[in-house]
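Researcher: Next entry: Histidine--tRNA ligase (Ensifer oleiphilus).
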Amino acid sequence: MFPMTEKQKKPQKLKARLPRGFVDRSANDIRATDEMIVKIREVYERYGFDPVETPLFEYTDALGKFLPDSDRPNEGVFSLTDDDDQWMSLRYDLTAPLARHVAENFNEIQLPFRTYRAGYVFRNEKPGPGRFRQFMQFDADTVGAAGVQADAEMCMMMADTMEALGIKRGDYVIRVNNRKVLDGVMEAIGLGGDDKANARLTVLRAIDKLDKFGPEGVRLLLGEGRKDESGDFTKGAGLTGEQIDKVLFFVGIQNYAESADELAALVSGTAKGGEGVQELNTIRSLVVSAGYEADRIKIDPSVVRGLEYYTGPVFEAELQFAVTNEKGEKVVFGSVGGGGRYDGLVSRFMGQPVPATGFSIGVSRLMTALKNLGKLGSAEVVAPVVVCVMDRDIDSMGHYQRFVQQLRHAGIRAEMYQGNKKNFGDQLKYADRRGAPLAIIQGGDERAAGLVQIKDLIEGKRLSGEIEDNAAWREARVAQVSVPTGELVETVREMLAAQAEDRARVG
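Model: Predicted structure:
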């Protein structure tokens, strides 16, 4: 056996790698998210909603997932065992934790309970393009209100939120359907009852492809099946022609006012279908009375929400402008949020009916949409003024620290150079890379004279591109001024204001 060399004995460096399905967020993304959340929160608060916060972890059974393996309940969620052998999971949405919170604090909560929450949720699913394991949602919910006026209000609040974010009418629509009507249609075509659950799911999946494949593609999926361009075959639901016609009539309704009576006739005699149609009629009446016509809030039977806990009205916020996808194709941006009525979710803990309705915005997806529209980044963030370090003795450092604190206390972003390099040129290079608008410079001579130099790095950069000779260089010194130390803050404020005016003029 050969002895190990020194190189072989050397420990391997730990590899820095980001877990799949997760992202690091930049300063710009964080600021854009904050800007967006402030605007959403203002709308929610205006509607009388108050914030509440639940933890990232919940006991797994409280999340309501149907877990296939009791020994390892991590299907779709990230789970671990507590020290008392109970399974806990990272929340996969913000609604199930709210249901637990309401049930646990039911006697102290004033009903109806109107609340909003923003936070990260986690999905233990295979990541892919645009599909992440951690993402942010922003929810609003009303618990304890049985009437569909609460659902209508959710839709109006979402329309107001879209407009508060700068999305103009015509670029968005809030689409509304009702699970009771959907169940009524399923029952009317012979797919009611627990024994037909799998067949119903296949039909719902086909309906959900309407935007992607169109009516004829969905007809194939409702029938024998559909072959795609690559030759792959998707088995269909196996419905008859008559059944398919009824489903396509339902999801193809464009003008609800004209089709409501025919829809009511289709679901007549079913357990919940007629009730669902009446609820849609009420929602439509309420939103129209409040001034929200079909260009903003539209009854659209093609809306299918995936989660099983919805029991009545369901809604989706869809952006209707075109974007270019990964394949270079022009496509409608699509959904940025959705929700609906979930009257059974809180009841799981209570043993009594507790009505609830809510809406969830996908923050990351909505942020992407707003960037496409140029609606984010309006809140300007100016890089810090950099105070250069010319001398490193304690007395000099004290002066530099006093400068930076004076600027900060005046509300101006500022930092003192913290690097180790003594070369003044390197400090200016750092300030330039940082995007600093100004540099504060004071050497021994300036300090003795009670002066401080302020270098306009923005103007200096502009002028440097025009300099061709020494005379021009001397004129460019206007980008650097010398002022008494007592006038530092006032002069910095004036120079920053002048830079802001220049940016506004150019913009």
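Model: Note for the record: The chain is about 40% helix and 20% strand.
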